[in-house]
């Protein structure tokens, strides 16, 4: 029984942690960068970045921004990133460019993930096993990946999108309960060695649900940054606050009570941000980013500035996603420390320079 459990853990880590983490890197290198370039293109002297251009009779809309955000581009990046992350042979990695693109075109990010995963695993079985490896390996990768990406990825992607629609509707009709659940769950996923950004993008949550997800992620990152200041000083605050709260996951496993302040903060601010301040985010990729490079706030700003003035949006996001998470987490942490449930060095990041 123990051997079976070890095998299950091994492949669960491989397919749901490692593969999805590298999938997220592929998304960041294309969709996220495309979003940033799109924002830069609003500057007059950089507007050429969004200009349409025609090559051989084919018109590419929105220029480099459109290309970076197209399913061809992000799908290919997902395939290559996943194959590289799972340490496949070069031919498998290069061939996964095609399976990721085909999967993305047919079934969105889910199609890219499934097509790339099956294609590279089958390709890995035959790689370097025949004298005509340069033909056999790419054929296996592309054929298997394309079939899975199209015939499996498409219906699964439809189910994921239906789930996203259900979540968005729930956030509209039951905003308080939904905001609590979404804020807490997405925030927890952010801190775990999973990709909350990839998860949100695959589900496709937007609107109020996206706002709740953004708040939950910000609460985790800002909260852990403040909570761990006494153990990690300024370098730790920066690493966690605008880097990733995942740095605290090992400490959460050792002593789960340290996770309580940020989770409570997410549960409180999720509905407050959604119901009182109408925080929304229509960029499903950025919903799961939190304050990582401030990209999560950037996605919310782009969505909300259509309705509110820029200054009002900035003040709302600073208050709900930075100031209040810092204050509430500090209060909960203070109480737990007074009860001797949290102690010094419980949130120590080993690699942090404390000088």
Structure overview:
There is one protein chain. With 355 residues, the chain is mainly alpha-helical. The protein has 2 domains: 2-151, no CATH class; 174-338, no CATH class. The protein is 74% helix and 2% strand. It has helices spanning 2-40, 63-68, 71-85, 90-126, 133-151, 153-173, 175-191, 196-203, 207-227, 229-241, 249-254, 260-276, 284-287, 295-304, 310-338, and strands spanning 53-55, 58-60. A two-stranded antiparallel sheet has the order 1-2. α3 crosses α4 (90-126), α4 packs across α5 and α4 packs across α6.
Primary descriptors:
2 strands; single chain; 2 domains; globular; 74% helix
Q: Estimate nothing, just give the exact number of structural domains.
A: 2
Q: What fraction of residues sit in β-strands?
A: under 5%
Evaluate the radius of gyration: 22 Å
Structural class: mainly alpha
How does the overall form come out from the CA principal axes? globular
Q: In angstroms, what separates the terminal alpha carbons?
A: 47 Å
Describe the biggest sheet?
Answer: 2 strands, antiparallel
Strand order of the largest sheet: 1-2
The percent of residues in helical segments reads over 70%
Write down how many β-strands occur, each being a DSSP E stretch of 2 or more residues. Answer: 2
Number of helices: 15
